[in-house]
Amino acid sequence: MKKTLLGIGLILSFLGCASQNKKHDTSKTDQYQLAMQFNNLGAKYVNKSMMDEAILHFKRALLIKPDFAEVHNNLGVAYSRQKMFDEAIGEFKEAIKINPDYSKAHDNLGFAYRQKNLFDEAIAEHTLALKINPKDMEAKKNLDIALEEKKIYDKTKIHNTANKGIAPGNITGYNHYVRGFFDEAILSFKKVLAEDPNDSMASCYLGNAYSMKGMLDDAIRTYKETISKDPSNVVAQLHLGDAYLGKGLCDEAIQEYEKILKTHPDNTRAIYKLGEAYADKGLLGKASTIFNKAIAMNPSFTEAYDKLGTVYLRQGFYDESISAWKKLLELNPVSARAHFNLGLAYASKNMTEDAITQFKKTVGTNPTNTDARYNLAYAYEEKGMLDEAVAEYKKAISMNSGDPVKNTKTVNTQDDPENVIVTR
């Protein structure tokens, strides 16, 4: 590492001597281009999950141009990926200090605050990001997550105060779980169960953490153990059905959901999941009946409308599928999935103009949806709009190849800069 830093120092010294001979320091444009090259390398290393190398190159960029807000933001992202949240917060703050209207840096700062349970600060940053850029759907999503996590965190603290018997490891494990640190969560819940095998909270969340990691056999075993100790634990029964469904064991899943409905006939989640299991098994008529029942019980059940539309489409009932997805869009107008599926239904009815409208709305909300771009291109082709079709095919192919369409308005003619990284 020291040799590398020394080498960079020699290069900078050489550039300095050369500029003195020319009686001018390196121009700001040259500094920007050189810093951008290091930034681009750092971004590429981030995309390869090589964070140490990414951090090194971002730091090199900042040695050349310390007031480069985008690089401070990207360095903060790399630190976040390393779970170095204090360092990340410092970099995001520096980016904002340089450019107070940098909405993505505000959003990323909010993300880092959330990882430290600083929910009020996180909410403030996500809100500010949306104020600067109201169309930033990622910031809107992060704000919703922060608000929900704050509610859960506050409730957990209140419960912990009211019930001194709750295991501290459950609080630690839950905090890891909601942040996506599933390995750490598993260790915490296992420690709780080692001391108290009957702790149903730890047992159920251990199963959830296994499920999130794709360890479905372990999840099924854990849920079964939970239910054997507490047969009335409906949450564990639901999750057991979900784990069966995840493994493609539709009959076992159906059995679990039906058990729940015998004692809790109004459990709309169990009804919905039962419909999903029937759909996965290919029993589409039964599935549509179940989804309609869930919707009748909860007319705002967006997931049920989505699944119902899919089942109708598979059955060839295009008008019914269109109706289902239109209802979903009344409840959630920005649902890219609903616009895409509605486009498929219109295309199936040869309503090409309507299909184009829906596919365009899909890519407007989710520009990286290659399926929507391919379908949009095909629809353009069907309408004889060949130039538009070719443009969409190129975009889709470029995205699938991992080579984003290049931006010709870049100062770096050797290598186009990466897009600013967004913490997700």
Can you describe this structure in just a few lines?
By secondary structure, the protein is an all-alpha fold. It has a domain at 334-400: Serine Threonine Protein Phosphatase 5, Tetratricopeptide repeat, CATH 1.25.40.
Structure overview:
The chain has 424 residues and is mainly alpha-helical. The chain has a domain at 334-400: Serine Threonine Protein Phosphatase 5, Tetratricopeptide repeat (Alpha Horseshoe), CATH 1.25.40.10. It is built from 22 helices and no strands. Helix 14 (250-263) runs antiparallel to helix 15 (268-281) and helix 17 packs antiparallel against helix 18 (318-331).
CATH superfamily of the domain at 334-400: Tetratricopeptide repeat domain
What is the correct CATH architecture of the domain at 334-400? Alpha Horseshoe
C-alpha end-to-end distance: 30 Å
C-alpha Rg (nearest Å)? 26 Å
> How many strand elements?
0
Could you tell me the strand content as a percent range?
Answer: under 5%
Give the helix proportion (percent range): over 70%
Order of helix and strand elements from N to C terminus:
HHHHHHHHHHHHHHHHHHHHHH
CATH class of the domain at 334-400: Mainly Alpha
Shape: flat
Provide a count of the helices. 22
**What is the third-level CATH name, the topology of the domain at 334-400?**
Serine Threonine Protein Phosphatase 5, Tetratricopeptide repeat
Structural class of the secondary elements?
Answer: mainly alpha
